[in-house]
Amino acid sequence: MSIAVTSKIIETRVYEGQKPGTSGLRKAVKIFTQEHYTENFIQAILQALDNQLHDCTLVVGGDGRYYVKEAVGKIIKIAAANGVKRLIVGQNGIFSTPAVSTIIRKYKTQGGIVLTASHNPGGPDADFGIKFNCENGGPAPDHVTNKIYEITKSLKSYKIASDINIDIDKIQSTTVRVDGNQFTVDVIDSVNDYLELMKDIFDFSSIRKLLQGSTDQPPFKVLINGMNGVTGPYIKRIFNSELGIDNSSIVNTTPLEDFGGLHPDPNLTYAKDLVNAIKDGPYDFGAAFDGDGDRNMILGKKAFFITPSDSLAVLAANLDSIPYFKKTGVKGYARSMPTGAAVDRVAAKNGVKLFEVPTGWKYFGNLMDAGHLSLCGEESFGTGSDHIREKDGVWACLAWLSIIASLGKSVEEILLNHWQTYGRNFFTRYDYENCESEGANKMMQHIETELQKLEFVGSKLTFGTKTYIVKLGDNYSYTDPVDGSKASNQGLRILFEDGSRIIYRLSGTGSSGATIRVYVDSYEDDPTFLKKDAQEVLKPLVNIALELSKLREFTGRDAPTVIT
Does 154 participate in catalysis according to the annotation? Predict the structure, then answer.
């Protein structure tokens, strides 16, 4: 016989600023731990489900950061009181973001609540986040997040069943009667369903043979870094148990509440330990993933760096190495607007349709659901396909290993061959983190004013011996080809006659201040240029970008926090 409990209504107060960004609501832990703050936002998510709420099933899990377990406990109690029928919860509160999407889609649930601040640092003095994923497994689109926000602005109370206490560290199914209604919490293994999907997509035997070697081929040595984020259990099961690499080839695989002091963002700055280990060690390949497992960085021997824009293009050119795409065919490629245009070259050569969308994975989801898109990526270290509706770090790593196994070439050889075939899009991104918001906004206003001047199109921008002729200057807007929805103010663009680009954006993924991102992209098909250093090639355009924006004057910043 199940336990019977009664819900109660708690009066609350409105907290301003609970507006979800491109990937949910991200704030400092100290904000989320205020009385009623988290409860309000969870209640708003559930109310936004309207008539889907009663008798629905939701997936709940997070990246293991500080406050995840406590938040899961609150979600269980509030969901129970609001008439949710069933929750599927990851053991220990752990689910990677790609795993949440996998489980929503596999079990056809009405959505999921993901507890993550992605690549932001964790711990009591760091960040937390809550994101809602819809029934397609992808991040909630604008009309849903806007609805959630509107509810937060007038919320007077929330419902909670305080007497429910479930041990989420133990795999079990618990059923409780709440106000006479049956409510079930299934705590499941965090990895199983995701592993099963990966084994359907990739030929694990060929990857295993690559990694373990054979009589005529030495083992392909890899180093996989979980950055003490959520991917640890996935790395152990997939790379260690299934693919047979030893423990010395996997590092930082225990999810920690503060990520062990690491900043779990897989780039050349924050994954410096991996870069140095690959540079100085015997490894042929390295990969790192972020806090919630949706981002990836790929390195070749001696830390040969693959930009995310190049990674997307190489995958696009070699999808026939992956069994999944042999079955499904290739429907289309897509990239976010600021991402380097390398994949555009592959699309043109292969006669595959290419889509350019605003930053935010939700924009890819619509195209996938409509059958227009197979592969997509963002320059912010996100790559994925239509197997789920999130970017997927471990998937990207397995995709690269599949291609290496198929082609029998090193990472560097694959990339050099790619550039010889398609030319090279030199790409860099300068991040200026935690800028004063006022100065950052004034800078963006200044740039937009410059772009709107009649004489701007056709003008020549020069640095040193390089001159670029402006073809277009605008504030990027997007009309979704599937549902006609519009997204405006998505970034300031300067496009040049030779295909080079400068993009400026204020990022919405930080929890405080403003992050300014400056993107520079330039195409070269001269064979003598292919191996040149990107920063050297892009120096004229970078200087033009900084001078035109007056970034130093508006922000007081002499140098970026991170260069990618």
Answer: no
